[in-house]
Design goal:
The strands form two sheets. The chain has a four-stranded mixed sheet with strand order 3-4-6-7, sandwiched between helices. Strands 2-1-5 form a three-stranded antiparallel sheet. The protein is an alpha+beta fold and about 140 residues long. It has one domain (about 5-135). The chain has helices at about 5-15, 65-70, 75-80, 110-115, and strands at about 15-20, 30-35, 45-50, 55-60, 105-110, 120-125, 135. The protein is globular and about 45 Å long. The chain is built from four helices and seven strands, in the order αββββααβαββ.
């Protein structure tokens, strides 16, 4: 991908935000998911969320994450970048990562609408060198 603006535009076009709450521990979790068939896009994105700071991080997946899964590695990558936050990945089972109970979906919104209410949203993607992570506040 070339340039921050192109990646930002693609992210806003592809992602919708799901909000979940846990009935047992009362934590709220957020997940940004792609609305497109991943075979048709030039960038593969997923997200992690830090409930204590209400920070949503949308990240480009590494080659290893694409190949072997990202449930554990994405939160760790986000914690290195945004130290002091515990990040969680919400997978398709929609189970609370803290207490193990089922999550209840509260809301679905577009990324633009979500950012108006919750401004701590970041995009992390790779520049020209695969090791160079670029961080953009959306």
């Amino acid at each position: 991908m070339k340039g921050n603006e192109q990646v930002r535009r693609l992210t806003f076009c592809l992602m919708v935000v799901h909000r979940y709450s846990c009935k047992k521990c009362k934590n709220v979790f957020v997940q940004a998911v792609s609305t497109s068939d991943t075979d048709m896009v030039p960038i593969f994105l997923s997200s992690v969320y830090a409930p204590q700071s209400s920070t949503l991080v949308i990240m480009e997946l590494t080659e290893n994450e694409l190949r072997f899964g990202w449930n554990d590695s994405m939160p760790k990558r986000a914690e290195k970048i945004f130290s002091g936050n515990a990040f969680f990945y919400i997978d398709s089972t929609q189970v609370c990562p803290i207490c193990g109970e089922s999550l209840e979906q509260k809301q679905i919104s577009g990324l633009s609408d979500y950012i108006k209410e919750y401004p701590k949203v970041y995009l992390v993607y790779f520049g020209r060198k695969d090791e160079e992570e670029i961080i953009v506040h959306l």
